[in-house]
Amino acid sequence: MPSTRDIKRRIRSVKNTSQITKAMEVVSATKMRKSQQFALSARPYAVTSLEMLKNLFLRTPESHIPPLLTARPIQNSLVVVITSDKGLAGAFNANMLKKAEAMLAEYKVLRRPYILVTVGKKAKEYFERRNEPIREAHIGYGDYATPEETQPIADMMIQGFLAGAWDEAHAIYTNFRSTLIQQAKTEKILPATQESIEEAIRGILPERGRFAESSSSTTYNLQPTNSYQYEYLFEPSPAEILAALVPQLIRIHVHHVILESNASEHSARMIAMKNASDNAKELMETLGLAYNKARQAGITSELIEVTAGSETTHA
Known about the structure:
63% of the residues lie in helices and 10% in strands. The chain has a single domain, classed as Pyruvate Kinase, Chain: A, domain 1 (3-Layer(aba) Sandwich).
């Protein structure tokens, strides 16, 4: 049995750890609420931009559809993996990297070339350890990403697609469903086809739960032909307007993806720190019982020694 000194040392160590995890839980909870507010408030803009993309796609003559909305044979694929810069977030990064590995493994089996871009230090370190070539690595998007910060990533995806460096672009990120549920998913960013836009809208709006209620006041119809019927009139020309509008809508989409990842990261870290604090509390209770037993055993042993010595003296 460990000595009382060893048990007291362990109790002190666990108590110090508990104080750290509790402080991190409070910090993560504060960041989580703020990041959730950013992500939830951005959802109407993201949905509206995606619906506008779909409306443009459906109502623009084929001769004027911009390249960003035009599918072409796949020769190269861009894969953007979005993780966090920091750890201690439970299975948040592990689930993301597992999904990314599965997608890259599928590309390797199909012998389809791909280009890898990472967002977050954890993804960068993970693929570097596996000698996976990384085209670009972006860090510093851990708390509350702004449109100015995410624009370089979106511009890189757009410019590479227009230049023919890749023929499709996918983002692997964690979609925020609720405080307790974060879903790792793959979303097609380019080209913005009708099917990919509908899937993105469904992914943004939860079907049930508290956060689904926040969008209940606005009905997002996936069939725009039922909500209104009209043709777009372009001035000065369809090519000039679409060339400026479509990239901006794509930037909003990319920005929203990173915001969802931010909210998921802070939620996962808060839950992980809460679990760690609860486990530390249980461990301290267990160690307290062990300490009392060891102390009682020591007292009993000393009493036996005193009694045995007294009997020997009288004898």
